[in-house]
Amino acid sequence: MTNEVIPNLTAFDEAALGQAFATLERQARDAASALGSPEAVEAFRLHWLGRKQGLLNEVSSRWLKAAPPEAKKALGQRFNALKSAVEALLDAASGAGPSDAALAAEAIDITLPGSRRLTGAEHPITKTLNEIVSVFAALGYSVGVGPEVETDFYNFECMNFPPGHPARDTQDTLVVANQDRRPQRDRLLLRTHTSPVQMRTMEQQAPPVRIVIPGKVHRNDATDATHSPIFHQVEGLCVDTNITFSDLKGTLDHAMKALFGSSVKTRFFPSFFPFTEPSADVQISCIFCGGKGCRKCKHSGWIELLGCGMVDPAVFAFAKEKQPAYDPKKISGFAFGMGVERIAMMKYGISEIGQFYAGDMRFLGQFA
Ligand SMILES: [Zn+2]
Fold this sequence. Notes:
Elements: H1 2-5, H2 14-33, H3 38-49, H4 55-66, H5 69-93, H6 100-106, H7 124-137, E1 142-143, E2 149-151, H8 152-155, E3 188-190, H9 196-204, E4 209-218, E5 230-240, H10 245-260, E6 266-273, E7 276-285, E8 302-311, H11 313-320, E9 332-339, H12 340-348, H13 361-364
Parallel strand pairs: 1-4
Antiparallel strand pairs: 2-3, 4-5, 5-9, 6-7, 7-8, 8-9
Helix pairs in contact: 2-5, 3-5, 4-5, 7-12
The chain binds zinc ion.
C-alpha cells in the first residue's frame, strides 16, 4: 500500500523537491484532521512513522538513495521538516503530546513502595455504642430507632414534661421556626433524648417490651471539655408484669460489669427525672483507681455514669391511650439512659469530647 502512495522521484531540483514534500505534508494534514479515536491515531502513527512499513521510512529509503549527491542535503532538510510536521500532527491528535520527560515520569519504578489503601474502622463512638447495645442484646433486648426531629409531644409531653414544666429548661433544644400556628404538642424540635422512641415503641407493641435505643440527641449545651450540643445516648426500656427496682439494679450492675470488667461495683443514689419514679443516678467504682480515690474520680472512688428509674405511671397513661395493656395497675417497668461519649471517654482515657468530632485521622487511627 505504501509503495503506491510514494511516487518515484525523477527530478531533484528545488521546485520538484518542494512540490513532492508539500504533497506529502498535505496528505498528512488531511489524514490527521480526520482522526477521531485513539485507534485511528495509532493507525496514523503506524502509517506515517512505522519502522518498517511507514511512509517516511519509504521516503527515506527510496528518495534519499536515488538522489544525486548534490541534492542529498536539501532533500535531507525537507525530510526532517516533514518528519517534524508529522510528529507534531500526531502529538496534537493524541492530546497533549507526551514529551520524553513526561514518558520518563510515567514509567513505573518497581523499587518504590506501593501506595497503601487504608482500610476503614469503626469510629470510637460507633464502637462504644455497639458494645453497649450488644451487652443488652445478649439479655434479650431488641434495638429501637426513631426520628431525630421530633414533636413536642413525643420528646416532652408524653415523657411527663408538661408545657411550662421547669424540667424542660434542663433540656433546652433547637426548635423548628415558624410553627406558631400549630398546637404546641405538634411543634417540631431536635430530640433531647432517645426517650421518644420508648413511647413510639409502646404505642406499637403491647407489653412485654425490652428495647435499647441508641441514637443522636441535641441539647442547648455550651461546648466544653465534656459537653457537646450533639451527643449520643443509649436508652433502655423494660416493661412487663412484676418488674421491680431489683430487676433494674441487677440489669445495670450486670451491664456495667460487662462493659468495664467484673470487678466494677455499682451504687444507686436518689435522683429526679420527670419520666421515672423513683429515679436514681448510678455510680460505678472508679475504673482508674479501683475505688481507692484518684484525680479522675475526684478522690471519691466513684464515678457517676447513668440515670435510671421505674417508669412513671403518668408515662404509661399516655401509652395506654393506644395500647390498653399499659395499665399501671397491672404492669411496671424500668428505664435507663447513658451517654455514649462519656463512656467512650472513660474507656479510652479521652479528656476532650471535641476530639470525637474533629475528624483528625491521627486521633481516630488509634482506634482502628
Ligand atoms: Zn479513681
